[in-house]
């Protein structure tokens, strides 16, 4: 009697990651290729939904080329997230990145490809990292935290599709403004006008003026 090689239960979604089994497209980025499934991509990303079901040229193609502008390790981590359904630091393998940098890179990709679940998880982990770096007496705020804040609220931050992260980071700054002023990099960037974009710069100036007004009244 022949052995039954079929699995004893339904296969888990993560086992299909980069597998030719049932694959109906290939995602190409930098010098990498990942066998993917259109259904999984459109379920997780509005960008892929529009690209594959809308009028984009990718709709009728087997190979979806994402280009080489983004770190391939981050792009692969995003694709793995679509299949694994969990977001953990080991998925992100870009050398030299700290945790803040890793979570921010994932957030930016999630925002670019409009991947709501990944964006929400990256936001949660990024805010948690910032709170660890900023909140709490007796601990100096390290420069990577200031650099990450600048990337989120600074002049070069760009126009985020979802503003939740920016608003949460801004509120975190206001709640810890006295401690931030003790960081030399924060002070330098603030004086040079490179800490905030115009919108958050005006909000910050108004709020600090309000705080000083209460202090001297």
TrEMBL record:
<dbReference type="Pfam" id="PF00651">
    <property type="entry name" value="BTB"/>
</dbReference>
<dbReference type="InterPro" id="IPR011333">
    <property type="entry name" value="SKP1/BTB/POZ_sf"/>
</dbReference>
<protein>
    <recommendedName>
        <fullName>BTB domain-containing protein</fullName>
    </recommendedName>
</protein>
<dbReference type="InterPro" id="IPR000210">
    <property type="entry name" value="BTB/POZ_dom"/>
</dbReference>
<feature type="domain" description="BTB">
    <location>
        <begin position="23"/>
        <end position="91"/>
    </location>
</feature>
């Amino acid at each position: 009697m022949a052995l039954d090689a079929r699995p004893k239960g339904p296969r888990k979604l993560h086992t299909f990651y980069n597998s030719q089994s049932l694959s109906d497209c290939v995602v190409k980025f930098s010098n990498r290729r990942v066998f993917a499934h259109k259904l999984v991509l459109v379920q997780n990303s509005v960008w892929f939904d529009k690209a594959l079901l809308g009028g984009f040229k990718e709709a009728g193609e087997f190979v979806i080329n994402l280009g080489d502008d983004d770190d391939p390790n981050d792009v692969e981590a995003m694709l793995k997230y679509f299949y694994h359904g969990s977001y953990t630091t080991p998925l992100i393998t870009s050398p030299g990145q700290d945790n803040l940098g890793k979570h921010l890179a994932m957030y930016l990709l999630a925002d670019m490809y409009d991947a709501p679940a990944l964006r929400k998880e990256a936001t949660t982990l990024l805010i948690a990292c910032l709170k660890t770096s900023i909140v709490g007496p007796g601990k100096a705020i390290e420069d990577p935290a200031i650099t990450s804040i600048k990337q989120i609220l600074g002049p070069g931050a760009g126009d985020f599709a979802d503003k939740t992260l920016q608003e949460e980071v801004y509120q975190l700054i206001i709640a810890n403004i006295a401690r931030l002023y003790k960081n030399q990099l924060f002070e330098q960037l603030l004086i040079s006008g490179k800490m905030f974009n115009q919108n958050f710069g005006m909000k910050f100036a108004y709020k600090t003026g309000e705080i000083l007004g209460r202090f001297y009244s």
